[in-house]
Amino acid sequence: MLTDPLPAGPLPADLLPADHRAGAFRRLDPRPYARARVLLFPHGGGSASYYRPWSSAAPWDVEFVAVQYPGREDRYSEPVPPDMQGLVTLLAADLPLDGPSVPTILFGHSMGAIVAYEIARHLCAAGDPPMRLVVSGHPAPAMTRPGIVHRGSDAELVEELRRTDATHLSILDDDPLIKAFLPIIRSDYRLSETYRMEPGERLTVPVTVLYGDRDSEISVSEAEGWRETTLAECDFQAFPGGHFYLDEHRDAVIALLTSRARIAASKAANPWPSMP
């Protein structure tokens, strides 16, 4: 779950403009003439800053907006909700985003895949569905693996992090830093391990499923289970690598998201804004 080496403490205020600190969504690199938007949901233990390079790499016509969960960086003082539905309710309260309404797709990796899926369900139920859901590195919601890691000791939690093929493992040997991280990591494990998909209507939007071909956290059958979440098309793409294949294939994933966002924009009924 852990790939983000940033400390769990608050982010210095000067790193985020004042009008970007409110709520859950961060325009880290605004695109005022964007024709489409991608909402990026971080993995467990991650934060909006993980997606800063993604936002910077986005083209002028596609805006990447990162989601900031409670309990980290500039939301450090806010408690993490006790369950996934609580988190989704909290995030959904900040939708729709301020500014022009443009076609939007959702992307989430690992725990973020489930958060993005539940947000998609919320938007569909509200009559304002996204144009596409892109999920990465997580079994289909109905096949989510239960677990008790969040109930273990700090030492057991650290050992679980070592067991995965997470990058930045040096953080696990930095005692003060990992102690600052552990409460957030434990909370995110709790959200993931206690999640159970509630019955409801299938999505009506296309779903794209990405995963690493050596990822022990998701099997091919668990990836294919996402077909059952939607009445629309569902397609798949495997990348070489493990659970954190994103680190090696970031540019390819950004290109995929940009392409899907532009396709979504081309299908939208509203005219695109023009670049000056």
From TrEMBL:
Record-stated family: Belongs to the thioesterase family.
Domain Thioesterase: 37-256
Name of this chain's protein: Pyochelin biosynthetic protein PchC
Pfam families: Thioesterase
SUPFAM superfamilies attached to this UniProt entry: alpha/beta-Hydrolases
Coiled-coil stretches: none
GO BP terms: lipid biosynthetic process
